[in-house]
Amino acid sequence: MTSMLAADSSVARNDLDDALWWRQASVYQIYPRSFADANGDGIGDLKGVTSRVPYLKALGIDAVWLSPFYPSALADGGYDVDDYRDVDPKIGTLEDFDEMTAALHQAGIKVIVDIVPNHSSDRHTWFLEAVAAGRGSAARERYIFRDGKGEHGELPPNNWTAIFGGSSWQRITEPDGTPGQWYFHLFAPEQPDFNWKNPEVHADFETTLRFWSDRGVDGFRIDVAHGLTKNLDPAFDHLKSVLSGQDLFEDGQHPIWDRDEVHDIYAEWRKIFNEYTPPRIAVAEAWVEPHRRARYASSEGLGQSFNFDLLQADFRAADFRKIIGDNLAFAADSGASTTWVFSNHDVVRHATRYGLQRTGAQDEAQIMNVGGKQWLLDGGRQDEVDTELGLRRAKAATQLMLALPGSAYLYQGEELGLQEVGEEIADEHRQDPAFFRNKGVEIGRDGCRVPLPWESQGSSYGFGAGGSHLPQPQWFSRYAVDAQEQDPASTLSFYRRAMALRHELQSAEELAWEASPNEHVLHFSRPGGWHSITNFGTTPVALPEGELLLASAPLEDGLLPANATAWLRA
Ligand code: BGC
Question: In terms of Cα–Cα distance, which of 187, 560, 528, 168 is closest to 396?
């Protein structure tokens, strides 16, 4: 490879017909409402994305993944979709979408959109029809309606707790005004779950996949891909933590998660993806047992599956090494490449996680849905987070990730070294249902969704001409793009350099572990002489022979300091 890509990486990146483009792509996640606001209404929009295409190109990414931009009441940040085949008027129009896609393609950047097939919003036409049509109607069969328990059906069908808290059943009022049936929702009550036993649901999502594929999108991120098919047999009613997934079964027979028949859906979708040239790609958001990822990632299925293992890991050499080895092996089983990620719109930014007092146990509970109270309680107050250490480790971890075979997912703002915004978001400004439905326990995910600072001065720090739908703290000024662009030592300059080198050096999807000076150092090489060395320990270590290409922190007397990664060409 190397010679070809190294000779002219821009040609390789611009080749939109390359069917294998995704295997080692760097994908940048955009949370559209918080990226850039072109019309100054305080909400990011698609024109804002278009206006920032030069920035995205300079960053050196291969693709963007856009979180939902569909019409939505924003009961769950857009993951409550009113209409899967339109753009939220607050964010733009279909024409804006086409313009954005064309501009991204022109810059050699592919477009991945988010598909939310587990649930719609409660404002979706189908759901309104279902409520209006009454018991036993075909319209109700598109969702999961049940009669309640108790003498008058006043109790929910079972005691399961939804992921955002509260019951997973919501009672409706029947068209005649009487209290009526209950519907099932894994997440918020505004997100009724579809009934995937219904062929109409299948047909409608196929239409949606074709709709966006025809508009030129290159791929899809599939939300909650492991949750679509369900078996709500009362025999499972006694299971307490059934929705949290804590009791994941490994036999494909769990009532909710990772049921074997979910793959029948993805086999249908694969046929659709393959109707296009190049085939559309898909990546599953599937929180399943690691060895069960392969089916989601198979070429008869979605083709790729997220692996969140590094995101959930401690910053420790042994843990990273095991995770990397395991996932390369799982990927080999599926024939797909794996995906790596440290930050996204659901978790505390990794520059903050790594700055917590404890370097230990950053378990799922601390990271997921939380941010907030849980890590504030477990890891110390926010003002005790060591942001310098956090950023230093985050850069080291990211540089390591960018050297791994497979695709790398980046989340908007991490290239600026942004920290999570914590208690500075007052309760009345919070938007995440996890906050409202779990009062006092979780502060939710708003802290990683605060609009980006593009300029160090001015209203909303250059996000737009108006305000910002989530308040930006003053310290955002220090992280602004305009200041970082001028500074060769900034986090942004570091990301740009790392991405450019990744393109130049990337080769066959192979990795070899190399001997390292001690157990806290991970050293691996890729074909073509690309070496990556990360020092997870506390004392500087000598680097092997070779040309130093990039280090996430300055060397100290020629040694690689603690919490740093270096790339060498040997
Ligand atoms: C998305 C979340 C969303 C949930 C429900 C997730 O996996 O990433 O942001 O709240 O699905 O759609």
Answer: 560
Task: Report residue 440's pLDDT band, with 50, 70 and 90 as the boundaries.
Answer: low
Measured torsion, CA atoms of residues 111, 505, 389, 535, in degrees rounded to the nearest 10:
140
pLDDT over threshold 90, residue 283: yes
Q: Give the span between the Cα atoms of 192 and 242, in whole angstroms.
A: 17
Amino acid at 357: Q
Amino acid identity for residue 33 in this structure: R
Separation of CA 285 and ligand 1 centre (Å) = 9
Q: Measure 218 CA to ligand 1 centroid, in angstroms.
A: 21
Domain 514-569 is found in CATH 2.60.40 = yes
Q: What pLDDT, on the 0 to 100 scale, is given for residue 186?
A: 95
Give the separation between CA 566 and CA 559, rounded to whole angstroms: 10
Q: Whose CA is nearest to atom 2 of ligand 1?
A: 346
d(CA 229, CA 186): 12
The DSSP bridge partners found for residue 145 are 183
Active-site annotation, residues: 223, 275
- Phi then psi dihedrals of residue 371, to 5 deg: 45, -95
125-184, what's its fold? Answer: Oligo-1,6-glucosidase; domain 2 (3.90.400)
Domain definitions of the chain by residue range = 16-118+199-225+261-494, 125-184, 514-569
Q: Are strands 281-284 and 219-222 parallel, antiparallel or unpaired?
A: parallel
Assign 3-class secondary structure to 205-265. Answer: HHHHHHHHHHCCCCEEEECCCCCCCCCCCHHHCCCCCCCCCCCCCCCCCCCCCCCCCHHHH
Work out the end-to-end distance of the chain between its first and last CA atoms, rounded to an integer number of angstroms: 17
Amino acid at 373: K
Q: What is the pLDDT of residues 390-400, one digit of tens each?
A: 999 999 999 99
Query: What's domain 16-118+199-225+261-494's superfamily in CATH?
Result: Glycosidases (3.20.20.80)
Task: Compute the distance between CA of residue 550 and CA of residue 396 in angstroms, rounded to an integer.
Answer: 11
Q: What is the mean pLDDT of residues 226-241?
A: 88
Q: Is 116 in the pocket of ligand 1 (CB under 6 A)?
A: yes
